Amino acid sequence: MLMNRIETAAVNSPARRALQRFYEVPALMKLAGGPLAPGAWAVEIGCGSGFGTRMILDHFGAAKVDALDLDAAMVAKARRRLADRPGRVRLEVGDATDLKAAFGAEDGTYDAAFDFAIIHHIPDWRSAVAEIARVLKPGGVFVFDEVTAHALARPTYRRLFDHPEHDRFTAREFLAELPRHGLAVTGAFTRISGDYLLGTARKRAANRG
Ligand SMILES: C[S@@+](CC[C@H](N)C(=O)[O-])C[C@H]1O[C@@H](n2cnc3c(N)ncnc32)[C@H](O)[C@@H]1O
């Protein structure tokens, strides 16, 4: 589900960028146990204007990133932002629930997958989790920063932004979904009374489900 104009402005505001750059990314990096291994290939779902993609390259140390977003205008912005990284970023308009269509991603392709506040925009959010689990290599890391049902129920969110109305997840429900897809949670915490969930999970070896 696309963002409305107010959310687009809020997400791309300097305040949000500062929060992401100076708080969320360091916190997620700590949960992930540090930068990615040299040569890591990452996928980012819902990349928006590509700010997070830059963080994945510059701070998490990915060698290459495949990044996609449903919104063609956001992908156009991301292409401009990342024009100085030829050969290291593939950007596509596409759906997070079908990474094969966007990138031809086979099972077990990526070392890392990033979700910077996008899965709560997907009506069938469990399909997005399943798709991330499918494309991660065994041992690959899923890094997530999510907005929960608790936040979406707040008057500001309800009045200003558009989000799927049904099957929203709490932090507990999101964390409970991951092992169903072979993703073992390795660290997570919530902030602002459960409004936001930050965490990491690792894809288990195939024979351990
Ligand atoms: C809250 S924004 C976050 C954008 C970016 N990750 C950031 O942190 O700035 C959510 C993004 O998810 C995208 N999106 C929503 N549903 C999607 C889907 N099914 N597949 C891919 N992107 C999607 C929206 O277009 C929007 O850019």
UniProtKB/TrEMBL annotation:
Pfam families: Methyltransf_25
CDD domains: AdoMet_MTases
Biological processes annotated in GO: methylation
Keywords linked to the UniProt accession: Methyltransferase, Transferase
Residue ranges constituting the Methyltransferase domain according to the UniProt record: 43-140
UniProt-listed SUPFAM superfamilies: S-adenosyl-L-methionine-dependent methyltransferases (SSF53335)
Lineage: superkingdom: Bacteria
UniProt GO molecular function: methyltransferase activity
Protein's name in the database: Class I SAM-dependent methyltransferase
Species whose genome carries this gene: Streptomyces tremellae
Taxonomic placement: Bacteria, Bacillati, Actinomycetota, Actinomycetes, Kitasatosporales
